[in-house]
Write a structure and sequence with these properties.
single chain, about 190 residues, alpha/beta, Rossmann fold, two-stranded antiparallel sheet, globular, metal ion binding, nucleotide-binding, ATP binding
Length: about 190
């Protein structure tokens, strides 16, 4: 399947999930993340979920990271430049939804991309070699390409991988792992 077909398929599959399904699977995903060998890292980038899109609820991951005294980084997107600015999430960080219902920090302490050790990546679909399908705006491919080569890229999904994404581009950045409620896929 190509990216367009996969976007349609997985948006539809997500819409069939109940709030309860999302909460249970999101908690299971957070528990599965505990099995990854990433806890010696310091700066963890976490996306804040778009509830309307029924994304993985990362609140459980935020609690894990806070409990382990990790530095948590969240982003704000500029839809004109397709750039993301990264901010440290603190008790004083004000979060506001933008025009696309994406929760974002209003402002704060900026964190340079090269400092980020681990990125939890939102996605609609992924395949068995770590290619991902997002919403098609290219924000995460641009961001991930600016990260250090050692930065660990972890997709979060409610679903199992597709066999193959037919229209992968040269600039698409592959995941290192994808975590589901029951499995860790290593690429």
């Amino acid at each position: 399947m190509n990216k367009k077909e996969l976007r349609l398929k997985y948006k539809k599959l997500r819409q069939n999930l109940s709030e309860n399904d999302i909460e249970i699977m999101s908690l299971e995903i957070a528990n599965t993340i505990l099995k990854l060998n990433i806890w010696d890292k310091t700066y963890f980038h976490v996306f804040l979920p778009i509830e309307e899109q029924k994304e993985v609820n990362t609140e459980f991951i935020l609690h894990l990271l806070q409990g382990k005294d990790k530095e948590i980084v969240v982003s704000k997107a500029d839809f004109q430049t397709r750039e993301m600015t990264h901010f440290l999430l603190t008790d004083n960080t004000k979060i506001k939804k933008n025009e696309y219902n994406i929760p974002e920090p209003v402002d704060g302490i900026e964190v340079p991309t090269h400092k980020i050790d681990v990125v939890f990546v939102p996605l609609l679909a992924y395949d068995k070699v770590g290619n991902r399908v997002g919403y098609g705006k290219g924000f995460y491919d641009k961001f991930l390409s600016e990260c250090n080569p050692e930065t660990i890229k972890i997709g979060l999904s409610f679903f199992e991988p597709e066999e193959f994404i037919s229209d992968v581009f040269e600039n698409d950045v592959r995941l290192d792992f994808c975590v589901t409620a029951e499995s860790i896929y290593k690429f």
